[in-house]
Amino acid sequence: MANGDHEPDGDRHPPIQLTIWAVIALAVVAIAGLFTVRLEHHPESTRDYPPRPLIADGEVTLLPAPEVPDDYLPCGDCHDDVERETGPTPRELEFEHEDTKLAHGNLWCLHCHDSANPNNLRLADASLVSFEDSWKLCTQCHGRKLPEWRAGVHGKVTGNWRGDREYVTCVFCHDPHSPPTKPLEPKPRPRRPEEIVLRADRSGGA
Amino acid sequence: MGIFSRSKQAQEQPNGASKGSSRREFLKTAATVGAGAAVGAPAVASAMDFDFESFMQKNFRELSDQELQAVIERLERKYSKQYDKQVDVSAIGPMDGVLYGYGLDISRCIGCRRCVYACVEENNLSRDPEIQWIRVLEFERSAALREIKLEDGNPYYDHEQVPAEGKFYIPIACQHCEDSPCSTVCPTGATWQEPDGIVVIDYNWCIGCRYCMASCPYGARHFNWGEPNLPAEDVNPDMHIIGNVPRSRGVVEKCTFCIQRVRKGRMPACHEACPVGARKFGNLLDPNSEIRYLLDHKRTFVLKAELETHPKFFYFWGTEGRS
Known about the structure:
The complex is a heterodimer.
Chain A lengths: L8 H4 L2 H22 L23 E3 L46 H4 L8 E2 L5 E2 L4 H8 L3 H7 L5 E3 L5 E3 L39
Parallel strand pairs in A: 1-5
Antiparallel strand pairs in A: 2-3, 4-5
Chain B lengths: L1 H10 L11 H25 L4 H5 L8 H19 L4 E3 L9 E6 L8 H9 L12 E6 H4 L22 E6 L8 H5 L5 E3 L5 E3 L9 H5 L6 E2 L14 E3 L11 E2 L5 H4 L6 H5 L5 E5 L6 H8 L2 E2 L11 E4 L7
Parallel strand pairs in B: 1-8, 2-12
Antiparallel strand pairs in B: 2-10, 3-4, 5-6, 7-9, 11-12
């Protein structure tokens, strides 16, 4: 190319240079865009809610234990004389006690009941507790459940999450003579998609 | 210039007759049609049962207090009349310092589905076509020794008694993710997370495109394919405007943590219904709550953690092995 030659600009810029410039320009735009464009990742509520402090907390109450049926107690009616002494040896009981099936680990009656004080339960150190405080007897062996039960993680605290709430003692859910909770009949299964048919007017119907 | 030059050509036809498509003719026709529409539209609209105020209603988040009050009154009138009982629609807002969290004890759940039906009654779900916000999946215990795959769960189990031998149960509803994919993909902004952590839907604003349903990894959102059928005697009249107001055909709905209950301090309906105490609920920001206790003391997991949606629904084992 001699001096003074004026070739058209198009010939001086072969495609490769144009491409490089275009790529650089695009990269600049894209990087600039990253700083300016924000996707609404999870849109905040823009509603202007007035401040609303936590409502007052309430009391946590342990509900009274259920009533022991009348025909269950008075053990003392039969065992109040020397002819019907209770024996300390674990064994199969008969006669009046047949109705009570005991299926609670390796326990037998006198592990929990006190023969001298049939209207009370007995702890391992031979001290007595009332039927109302039977949870003290249960947590004697099931100690890990005690803090969980107090916190609401074992069993259930009902009522409110904020406000007054109640929880119940062990025997509300667990029969002490056969503690595992009983199976239930399940509620009906959901409809499969093919079982749900819409009528022509788009109202429901199966 | 195209139309008008053609009209000029039309006027210059050999027989001299105009084709009637001049600018003036066009404007006359447009005016006539417009007037006719303005007169006829209300008649057509009322015949089609068209609710103009509902149509023009703004997104819930943009309503002023007066507008919101007007919407509430309109809805209360409408539903009280429709269901023949005094309906109360609330718009109660979130409490400060509250982030709701839910816990579920899968060592206790027996799959009885009482939570499912308590939710249906509390939240005015359509009975027919049936919609259920909670699904209880049944899994094989032996399979869990290797891996729990949600896709292997069976929601259609039908035993005489539960729990069935060798099975365990995981109920699933909306996880109220901190990073919810549904609120990200909604094209209209009809679903969002409230300050107290509940992901809600403005049913009036939802256009029914179902992008949110495609994005939800838990299958927790449900669509009204048909007109919901809710018998009047089964209606729960205690409603919240972005909670359990009756929905219409063509909108998406899902669990709201019983927003009408929890914002007043009550427990969700599923929590109250559970007969074995498998459900736990509370304020994640309160260190003394039962939800915080179980997060601190129990082995806890969330579903599909690898997707990083950060659910606020925590599954745990209350007891591992025989107690």
